[in-house]
Design brief:
The complex is a heterodimer. Chain A is mostly beta strands. In chain A, 0% of the residues lie in helices and 61% in strands. In chain A, strands 2, 4, 5, 9, 10 and 11 form a six-stranded mixed β-sheet that branches. Chain A has a five-stranded antiparallel β-sheet with strand order 1-3-8-7-6, with no helix packed on it. The radius of gyration of chain A is 13 Å and the shape is globular. Chain B is 0% helix and 50% strand. In chain B, strands 2, 4, 5, 6, 9, 10 and 11 form a seven-stranded mixed β-sheet that branches. In chain B, strands 1-3-8-7 form a four-stranded antiparallel β-sheet, with no helix packed on it. The N and C termini of chain B lie far apart (36 Å). The chains are: A mainly beta, B mainly beta.
Chain lengths: 109, 115
């Protein structure tokens, strides 16, 4: 079993829908990152969380440390949101990241 | 502009021919790291560096070397590349990987093919 599990693996939705991507992890962590990778490969950091909730524009990320779970929400989704979204955790005491397998999101016009 | 620069972006080489992928950041970050990304396996850490002259193995270090002689540069060296090192490689940096850490900045990726 992977230390970091994302669901769903693939998600297709219509423009304007509310999107939720989930990330569950099995170890104690000091931080969790949400990353975005567009076709063509570049990776961009969206959020770094250690508790609570953060919001950037239409993106919202939440984390529940006790339940070892994080969610990434996209409101009013748009075709340009189509990308792979990757959850990564930094285990407590470790200087490394453990990555989920990613969620491929496709937003149709 | 804050950035992490990798070169080359694309490379086709042959088995056994030594190559170096360079990585440079202009943010005075302490932490730098190399990852490879393969279909079905996701991102995996190869090596990381907490600061100048401080490097350590990640999850898949076999066949790779790194050095950190200057804070801004963290080259990835493949002494004798093999076809199983065909992959998409990313360099990343962060201000810190301490308990709170910092935002990650990724290079654009280097697609390497070993024939």
């Amino acid at each position: 079993k992977n230390e970091v599990e994302q669901s769903p693996q693939n998600l297709t939705a219509q423009e304007g829908e509310f999107i939720t991507i989930n990330c569950s992890y099995s170890v104690g962590i000091s931080a969790l990152h949400w990353l975005q990778q567009h076709p063509g490969g570049g990776i961009v950091s969206l959020f770094m969380l250690s508790s609570g909730k953060k919001k950037h524009g239409r993106l919202i990320a939440t984390i529940n440390i006790q339940e070892k779970h994080s969610s990434l929400h996209i409101t009013a989704s748009h075709p340009r949101d189509s990308a792979v979204y990757i959850c990564a955790v930094r285990p407590q005491g470790a200087q490394k990241l453990v990555f989920g397998q990613g969620t491929r999101l496709t937003i149709n016009p | 502009e804050a950035q992490v620069t990798q070169n080359p972006r694309y490379l086709i080489t042959v088995t056994g021919k030594k190559l170096t992928v360079t990585c440079s950041q202009n943010m005075n970050h302490e932490y730098m790291s190399w990852y490879r990304q393969d279909p079905g396996l996701g991102l995996r850490q190869i090596y990381y560096s907490m600061n100048v002259e401080v490097t350590d193995k990640g999850d898949v270090p076999e066949g790779y070397k790194v050095s950190r002689k200057e804070k801004r540069n963290f080259p990835l060296i493949l002494e004798s590349p093999s076809p199983n090192q065909t992959s998409l490689y990313f360099c990343a940096s962060s201000s810190s990987m301490s308990s709170m850490g910092g935002e990650l900045f990724f290079g654009e990726g280097s697609r390497l093919t070993v024939l």
